[in-house]
Amino acid sequence: MSMRLPAALGATAATWLVTACLQAPLALAQTPPAAPAVAITDQDISDAYIYLLGRLLVTRQQQLDFKDGMQWNTLYHRKPGAVDWPNPNLDVAYSEAWVGIDEKSCTQVTVPKVVDRYYTVQFLNGWGETLANINEREYPEHPNGEFAVCLKDAKVSLPADTQRIDVPARTLRVLSRVELGKDWSEAERLQHQFKMRPSGSPQLPEVPKTLIFEGQKLPGVEAFDSATVALQEPDINPGMEQVQAKVRAIAAAIADPAERARVDKSIHTQAFADIAKASPIIGHGTARDGWARPATVGTYGDDYLTRTLVNYGGIWANTQKEVIYYRGGQDANGKTLDGTQSYSLTFPGKQLPASMANYYWSITATNAKTFLVLPNSLNRFSVNDQADLKYNQDGSLTLHFAPSKPQDVADGNWLPTAPGQIYRLVLRFYGPKGDVASGEYFPPVIKHL
Questions:
Q1: For position 215, what pLDDT does the model report?
Q2: For residues 198-226, b (16+ Cβ closer than 10 Å) or e, as one string?
Q3: Residue range 73-198, CATH number
Q4: How far apart are CA 446 and CA 356, in angstroms?
Q5: Which letter, b or e, does each residue of 240-259 get, where b requires 16 or more Cβ atoms within 10 Å of its Cβ?
Q6: Nearest Cα to 179, choosing from 443, 382, 438, 400?
Q7: Beta-carbon neighbour count of residue 389 at 10 Å?
Q8: What pLDDT, on a 0 to 100 scale, did the predictor assign at position 80?
Q9: Which of 18, 109, 195, 205 is the most exposed place for a label (fewest CB within 10 A)?
């Protein structure tokens, strides 16, 4: 096939064009080779591992839940204390579910009328981010009755008087909490009135088959074998593309045995060290007088480090509007709490914990490694505002943590500990207010007796 040059093209220009075409192969041959791929650094590996681990902790629990018999869109009412995840709140009756929704089906939730008792129905996505709460604080004009949790923009016809709640996720973890208070039987009666059902026939998600590992034994390079499946769940937080690209790059690179070994070594050195360094302040939190308070919880933005640490040490945490957590792990001398020893904690009369919570407060002691409550013959695992507390003459409140009840200490002021176990205290304020809500408050020092 011949090619005719436009008549308007001058002879000089035509000569130049032909010469350029003839020389093109030579020019291409002289093009420098592409730069080698950028090496994956130890910091890249640490960042990617910590990010991915946060998701794997959720999928691990999801697989365990379904193995234990849970089914989609079914609310399971648990007996008080009968839950199996790190740092549960033992002051509430829990109900739990996994929810699947799509463009044509919502999940309907019935909430009973609850008076003078804390309650909420919390919805989280597959990364441990809280998407919604149903309670009288979020819906003061519709605190109970019928609700429908729907995929955003889903076209679903709902019954009248149903409060629709749109969420950006197809898979949801649900926790319903009802404060036990002094009348546990009433709390359990209310708990069983919370109900859940799909509005139609949703296309149910598959339970992701990712790595299952022991809670106290973090995985190494094998975590990245699950990267493709794990990242199928969208992360709603902005700016995660770069760290997700690192995850995918490492998952591809470890096909080479030598690179796999290098990544594994890097995880066990730098990534684990970075986690250990961030743990005392729960990511980017603050520590004071032996207590740590996370900078955020429940919703994390770009702080995936804190999200992963919370998923590891206290999965399903709610937002700071609902509850604020303080973790106490050291006494006034900076030494870790030992179940063999005796300690005291005194709240001044002007800063009693009840004055900083709209609903209630509690303190729980858990093993520092397993995050499970400390076993004791009394089966007493927390102290809260429902206990038979005795106040000091000056109005202050002193609590005791010891393997046996100290002399002249009221029974309600004592939380038993387990000899030989290193532990930490978790102080919760439900409906935080005042200096707790603003972040200015920190609990008093824990004194070694």
A1: 76
A2: bbeebebbebbebbebebeebbbbebbeb
A3: 2.60.40.1610
A4: 19
A5: beebbebbebbbebbeeeee
A6: 382
A7: 17
A8: 80
A9: 18
Give one word for 52, left, alpha or beta, with left for phi > 0 and alpha for psi -120 to 50: alpha
pLDDT value at position 11? 34
Residue 116 β-bridge partners: none
| pLDDT of amino acid 14 | 33
Kindly state the DSSP code that residue 330 receives in the 8-state scheme: B
- Residue 98, beta-bridge partner list: 72, 173
Give the pLDDT score at 186. 96
Cα–Cα distance between 306 and 302 in angstroms, integer?
A: 9
What is the CATH superfamily name and number for domain 322-448?
Domain of unknown function DUF1214, C-terminal domain (2.60.120.600)
**Residue from 352, 360, 363 nearest 391 by CA:** 352
What burial letters (b/e) apply to 113-136, b meaning 16+ CB within 10 Å?
A: ebeebbbbbbbbbbbbbbbbbbbb
Dihedral, 416, 419, 421, 422 alpha carbons, nearest 10: 70
Region of residue 173 (left: phi > 0; alpha: psi -120 to 50; beta: else): beta
Per-residue confidence (pLDDT) for residue 410, from 0 to 100: 94
* Cβ partners under 8 Å of residue 435, min gap 6: 356, 441
At CA 394, angle to CA 392 and CA 395, rounded to 5? 65
Longest dimension (CA), the chain: 111
What's the confidence (pLDDT) of residue 37?
58
pLDDT at 86: 66
Would strands 343-347 and 323-328 be described as parallel, antiparallel, or unpaired? unpaired
Q: Which residue, chain included where needed, has tokens 């010891």?
A: 402
Domain assignments of the chain as residue spans, ordered by start: 73-198, 322-448
CA atoms within 13 A on the CB side of 409: 21
Residues of the chain with pLDDT under 50: 1-31, 33-36
For residue 3, the model assigns a pLDDT of 36
Distance CA 92, CA 386 (A): 12
Positions of E strands within 180-298: 195-198, 286-288, 291-293
